[in-house]
Structure formats: C-alpha cells, structure tokens
Amino acid sequence: MRSDYAVVGKRIPKLDAPDKVTGRTVYADDLKLSGLLTAAIKRSPHPHARILSVDVSAAEALPGVYAVIHAGNVTQRPFGFGHDNTPLKDRVVRCVGDEVAAVAAVDAATAQRALDLISVDYELLPAVDDPFEALQPGAPRIHDELDIEGNVSMEWNFQTGDLAEAERRSAVIVSGSYSSPQAAPAPIETHVVIAGFDADGALEVISPVHMVFMYRKELADCLGLDWRRITVRQPPVGGSFGGKIDIDAHDFIAVMLARAARRPVKLAMSREEEFTGTRTRQPIHFQLRTGAAADGTLLFRHAEVVSDNGAYNAWGSHALLVAMNTVTSMYRVGTSRLNAKVVYTNKNYGGSVRGFGNPQATFAVEQQMEELADALGMDPMDLRLKNANRPGDVTPQGLEITSCGLSECLETVRRKSSWDQRRGRMRRQHRGLGAAAYVHVGGGARIYGSDGCGAMTKIDDSGRVALISGSSELGQGSETALAMIVAETLGVPLEAVSVSHDDTDVKPWDVGVHASRTTFVAGNAARMAAAKARDELLKGAAEVLDRPARSLTIRDGVISVPGEPTATLRYEKAVRRRLLREGSSIIMTSAFYDPPTQRQDENYVGNISASYGFGAHVVEVEVDPDTGMVRVLGLWAAHDVGRAINPMSCEGQIEGGAVMGVGLALSEELPVEDGRFPAPNLHDYGMPTAMDAPPIDVTLIETADELGPFGAKGIGEGGIILPPAAIANAVADAVGVRPRSYPIRPWKLRRWIETGERSHVDKRPQLVRDVNAR
Amino acid sequence: MRISITVNGDPVAQPVDPSDTLLSVLRERLHLIGTKWGCLTGDCGACTVIVDDRSVVSCLQTVGQIDGADITTIEGIAGRGRMMNDLQEAFVTHGAAQCGFCTPGMVVAAEQLLRDGVEPNGAAIREGLAGNLCRCTGYSKIIDAVLSVALARME
Question: What CATH topology corresponds to A32-125+190-238+244-277?
Fold first, then answer.
C-alpha cells in the first residue's frame, strides 16, 4: 500500500484543538446578541393526558415577558417522520416532557416565573410504557388520530431463502431473547438554539444541529416560512452523538417565539430537559434464532423484533434499517428473516443515536454466535472466521462487500488478547474473555434521494487554500481530516489550508453528518475539488516554467519538473502570476460527490453504502459473583478503517465510542417509573468516568477502499457497537450465565447467577453425527 | 454585598447577591466564557475552576463564601504572556480534545491535580479526574496527556 504521502496517515493534532484547550472556542450558549431574550418551555408532567385548557393570561401580564405561545395562538403543521408530532401539543400530551407552552422573557428568572404562571388543565388518560403491553388489544391508544392498529407505527419485514428448509438442515439451533434499555446520547453541551428575524423578515437560526439543510426545510414546512429566506449557522458543537442530528420541537418553538416577540431568542435546554425533552436511544427487543451445520457453517438467522420508540416516530423509527443489516449481513448467513414492529409508548421518544440500532442488534447476533460455538464445541473465533464476510460477497439485502478486513480484525484481537490461551480458562478467578464483531455502513448511507456533499476550494493571492465544505464538525475531527485530504491532493502544506462549514448561505449542500459518512463522502468531495484546483495550479505553472502541465509535480508547495532541479516554482507564485496581470483569473473550484449507491427497495434490498466498515473487539472482565459487579479489565479493538487519514483521530473515535459502549453495557439507562424518568441527571444516569473506562488497545486495519478518499472508510460509529455484546460474552465466559439484557447491572447479574440463565440450544444429534462421520 | 476577588491575577470587585454562583459571575459578569456548564448540579465538572489551590465546580460555589479568594480559570491557566502551558500543549499533541466542551474544566482539574503532586501513573490520574465527565474521548488520550506532563514536570 502506498505510504509516501506528505500529510495523509500522519498523527496530526486537530486544527481546532488549541482554541479548545485555552477556552477560546465560542459555543452557542457563549454567544451574546443585542436584545437577546431568554426562552423556556412549559412541559407536560403527565405521560398521557388530554389538554383541556391552557391559560396564559397571568404570564402575559408579567413585566419582562415578550411572548407566550401555545398551540392555540400559533400556526404550526405536523413534523417528524410520519408527521405524528407538533412542536406545541394541541390536544393530547403523549409523554412527560411534551411541549405545551413557551415563553420569551428578558431574563431566565422572569421566564421561569412566567412558566409558573401558565396554568394547564389536563384530563389524565391511561398510559403505557411497555411496548408489549402497548401491543395488547385494549391497550391505551397513543395516537388515536392515526389509522393504525395496536400502537404499531411501522413494520419492517424481510425474508430471503427457505427458512423451514434451513432449519431442517441445521444441526444446532440456538434461540434467545435479548433486550436493550432506553439510553441517552448525553453530550456535555446541552441543546441550545438561537433564532431571530431581521427587519426584512429573513430568519437566522444558530444551532448545533448537523443536518442543516434538512433542518432548514423542516422549519419552513412546519412554520410556513420561505426557506430561501432561512440561514442556518452552526457554531462549534459541544458533542452530539446523534442527539443533535435532527430538528426537535424546541427548534420550532424558538423560531415561533422570535416571530411573536420580534426579538431574537435563546433557548438552552437544562440537563433535565436534555434527558426528558431531547431524543434518546430506543430500547429494542429481539427474539433471535441462529442455525448452523455441524461444521459451523451458518444456515439461517431469524429475528422477531419489537422496537420501543416512545411517543413519536422521529427518525428513531429507522433504527431498524441498521438493525436489519446486521441480522441479514453480519457474516455469511444466507437465509434470513426479520419481522419488526415499531411501537408507540408513552415515553420520551427515540432518535438517531450513534450506532443507530446496531449496538442493540449486535448484542443479540454476537451473543448468539458464541452460544452457537459453545453448542458446536467450536472456538467462537473459529466460528466467526469460518463465516466471515469477504471481499466480493453480496449479502441477502444486496450489500456489496468490497474492501473487508473482518478476518484480519478478528485475528488481531484474538492474538493481542491471548484469546486461545485464556478464553474459558479463567472461571476460577471469575474472569472471562468475550468477543464481538460488526458490519456498519462506511461509505455513506442512501436514506434520502441524494447521499451527496458539495465542496468548494479557492486559493487567494497569499497562497491560502480555503475549503468550503457542506459537512459539519462535531468534535470528531472531520475538519482536520478534510484539510489533510486537500493538502495532500493539492501538494501544499497543511498550514495553508482552512476549512469553513458553518453557514448554509455559503456552503454547498450536504445531507448532513450521520451514518459515519463525513470522511468518505465529504472527503471525496473535497478531494475532487482540490484535484481541480491542482490542475489549475499546474496549468498556470506550465506557462511560467515553459513545460507541459502533465510533466509537473507539486509537493510541499513546490512545483517542479522531475529530473530538473532548477525548474521549480512556489505554488503561491503560480497563483499570483495568473492573478496580477491583465486578463487575470483566480483559482476557484467546486465538486459534488454522491456515492454510487442505491436506496433500498420496498423489499429492503439495495446497496445502501459505497463501502462497509468492519471491526472486532475482545473484552476481559472480572465479575464479583457475590455482588454481581462487573469490572472491565481490558479492551482490544481492531477496526478496518480503509485508510487512516489521521490515525490519532481514528483512535479517538474508537476509544470514545468504546467507552460509550462500556457505559451502555454496564450502567447507562433511563429507567421509567410511572411514565417518568425518576432521576434525569448525570449523577444517576451512569455515564462512565475516567475510573470506569478501561485501558483500550486500538489497532487500525488498512484495507485501502477503492472508492474512499485515499482509501478511507467511515469510523465514527464503529467503536460503540461492540462493547454490550463483547462484555455480555465475557461475563458468560467468567461466570457461565447468559446476560439477556443490558445494562448488566449488579442486581440483574446476581439474579441470572441465582437462576442459572443459560443458552437455549436445540441440537439434532443425528445431523451432528452425519457430518462428523464424513 | 460587594466581593473582592482575584481572577487570573486581576483584582475584581463586583456587587453581587451572596447566593450568585461563581459560574454566573465568571460567565455573565466577567465574560470569561471559557468556563462551561453542563448540568448545574456539580456532576459533570465542565465548570471546574481553581479557588485558592482547590479544584471547585463553580456552578455550586456561591460567591458569598469566597470573598478575597484567588481564582484561576481556563483563561488564566497558562499564565501571563503565554498562550498555552505544557499541559495545554500536551492536550493538543495527544489528541485529548474532541468536541472541546469538557476540555476547559478537564484542563483546570488536571492542572490542580498536577500541582497537588499526583502520582505519575494512570490509575492515580483517572481517580483524580473522576469528577470530570468527557463523552468524546473515552479518556485514554486525556490520561496520556496528563501523565506525560506529570512525568515531565518531575524531571
């Protein structure tokens, strides 16, 4: 593989790091605007109730209050996937935290007093917070305005192959149930939105959202605005993890308040609102069966799934899209079937949190792989390697596997963790090893009509190269990766490159940051725009050096003719030569990259991504059998990143994702009692601290994807997918019981140890014998 | 009441309500916006500042109790005339900042930990920073950065 790059592959500190470590970075809540009002939201305290009346007269009369809005005095249309939600609820509240009214006032204290003066009369309705109860006949109807049965908002059904035949051929079938909790992205910066209209009626919104063009359209559709007159600016984002991907009710509310008050407003979520009023990770419940021949060849996988997405669909309803890919396409499984229902419940609803359905699905699929291996008497790594996806495979859903380092990832973590010497041999010390592996989109994900991103470059008379990208930086390091791609492509020093991506008036269109797509899609757009700029540079230099452009090379900003040490020209000079003359021109280029992929058809078949990312983890745990406490002693991670544009940032994504995954596996949860989260705060939520985070050993596997920029594939989500499954497998190795749900809290594990929770295995001795006799 | 405090070496006198938090005085009166808030309940550590040689979560610290105190925020950590100190440089070169929102509080807490003479090993540093949540990095690179400075400062 080529390794003589000047910039790509180097450990480059993030370009925004110096400002961040000195406190200079200005986030949304740090902004001050003249006349800025403080907004606050009156939320439902009930999980399900009819709104009988809303009286805002006392709040409106309070000095310092500029606007009080509720469904009765604003114009709004439904929003969200399936249009099942409105910013301010007008008839029914469906979860605690539902937005009922809002105020804009001169300061926070006045806004809070005004909220207290709003009186809302409710008629309580029966509520349901369990999706299986919500499916029962006679369960409370959560959306009686919709023509749906049994609170089922969506179904996802896929089948390929002859399931009955595959079952007959299976020597071993393992079945079991696997459940995940409601969890939160919990960025340290809560959601903050600032909205204001100029005197001419144009709207500017400042928001850390990261699908800005879609955000603009949804604002316009819901509020009846002219979307050509909306500018969205994105300040630096204090973490998202999917929590800030989408438009939320509070975004519309800020705009409605600004419109009513004729002043700009800032709406900042408190930490409690961040848990109760912004999007969560949906619990998904799997009934899974996997069958294999006696030699370990996988023959089928069958999942019956219930996704508990809460009070509204949002995009969280689509976590099944990713979960389905894992069920049908992780390893060569062939015959597969998935039937999933997305169910409404009276709870805060699910969104598009990092990993988006994959940690939940992998918890089921990868536990079952180790259960199957144990039932077959095989090593789980051997079982995985035997069935591993390989380059050239096309999976049942039509995913075209091109670059694929899955086997290398598995072999790497196997070796580094001393798996063969230690797995199954540490039970006396209550220690165990567990593994898991994933497939995830790594080359965009065509969910919308376009999966594209635009890029523009310009080179000014100083030699400054500006990249204007459609994408966004959330802290993950994409800005630095894009600058590196431009510097490498152009052959100029990294210091010469700047990146802008924060203003919809300036930047070209992009779907947004999701699906681990930015380095791949925005990176390819940047590479294409920079390649055009390079052509222009060399064309100008060819005139000066009197050599054909195709004979020139450029590296570190020096344009030269190979073999002629004296024929050189600094690139800045080439720029100025074509600028400072009659008939002058400057270098400005643009490109738009849309990956060669397909939207999945009505049968969920289609090559949704231009490449796929793979990875494997091994985790070592120690269990205290008396308390049920699980300690993670070590985590070995190997990820196929195609090519590491910036290895330090790749490691950062994997380490950060892995620790978020450890949190999911062991402690993070928003339990519901009587329809509410009893403790929506960071003390009780269970986010890992530095003491809870294990040491992590990361190996980057480079497979040089043929379509990725310099071979790179997406890695933003890979790290979080595996810890719940790998830790569950390690617990099973340590104490011999099978975790059925996460987080694996001590009280749960103690109960499983007491009841002896085991795998459910159906063996066909005759089939096993037949194969062994061969 | 009126308080007199020293912030990053500058004398500051402000009329305050004794129950105002140090965080609100720093951010809203003095416009020192490098100190962040993530919870206002003392759980995340994003608002950590140094008060008289102690790490303090400024969201819970009322100003009525700290008249006369010497306060250092992220803006003053490097010292006068310097952009960054060795710890901040280590955060940059080790890749210890991603979204950056926890970073000011993390740097301030780590600086006080170093001044308190934390043992130069990963376990001690992890324990010392357990009050500062980071959602991006998984802590590995933060611990590496702090450890490198702990070792360098011993020389």
Answer: Aldehyde Oxidoreductase; domain 3 (3.90.1170)
